[in-house]
Amino acid sequence: MKKTKSFLVAVVSDTHVGSKIGLAPPRIDFDDGDSYEASQIQQEAWDYWKKDFWPFVWKKNRETVVVFNGDLIDGNHHGTNQIWSASEIEQIRVAADLFDPIARKASSTYVVRGTPAHVMASGMADEAIARKIRANKSSPEGNRVATSSYHLKLNVGGVNLDIAHHGPNPGRRIWLYGNELRGYCRTIVLDALARNAKPPDAIIRSHVHHKVHETVRDYGNKCEAFITPAWQWKTEFAHRIVSHEDIADIGGLLIEIDGSEISNAYFRILPMSQSDFIEIK
Q1: With a threshold of 0.85, does the pTM exceed it?
Q2: Strand boundaries in the chain, DSSP class E
Q3: Which of 17, 38, 238, 248 is the most buried (most CB within 10 A)?
Q4: 240 lies in a domain?
Q5: Which domain holds residue 138?
Q6: Count of domains in the chain?
Q7: Which helix (H) or strand (E) element contains residue 93?
Q8: What is the distance between the alpha carbons of residues 21 and 232, in angstroms, rounded to a whole number?
């Protein structure tokens, strides 16, 4: 009997390199001689990225597929002052330096394009990073010259993954979490069945900086649906629209595949609070 391979799919998204509250190394040096020192919360996340998340991935000792699912830089957007450089070129350079060692160690690496406000028109920043880290092309036999893609349908060890950056919201209240994701997943599954096509085994979306996992079963088909966490804390905008939440979801999604099936799927999370707690006695 032929032995089946064991795979690990690691999905990270919304790193927002360039943001003062996004992923950053301890020190960034610019070409004009200036530099930026990471904040305390950035240092905590960097330690988690370097000393926990990725070491955990590599210790699994599986054939590892890495997906960077969009919004890899923060860009220069909406008049924000929460960026350490207004230069997208500098942000792309730093992001590529952060992701290149991961791409070199992974069995294969894919990049999905994010939001134009962050990564510029046509996903130019995500595409530039994909090329710099020599990511795998999403259509190697097609006529597209791009390395990144907007919508990636990836078959890993017989498991079909449907991956894109944009998708449903998690829900504004905790008792609503997952409702929109389940409906979104059912739409994709039923659309496939109506076309006599095989529905995906997993749907992965990002963008909203919250982790959500739902399982949908329809007409004998089972589909795991995920919204991934981010590597950026609550921005000024996020503080306004989700002011009721204390904790930001920092981390990534891991999917283990054995015998052409998803054997395990889970998030690796560093919970971080940006609320100020004051006790007056």
Answers
A1: yes
A2: 6-12, 27-29, 35-37, 63-69, 108-112, 151-156, 159-164, 202-205, 212-218, 221-227, 247-258, 261-273
A3: 17
A4: yes
A5: 6-160+233-273
A6: 1
A7: helix 88-105
A8: 6
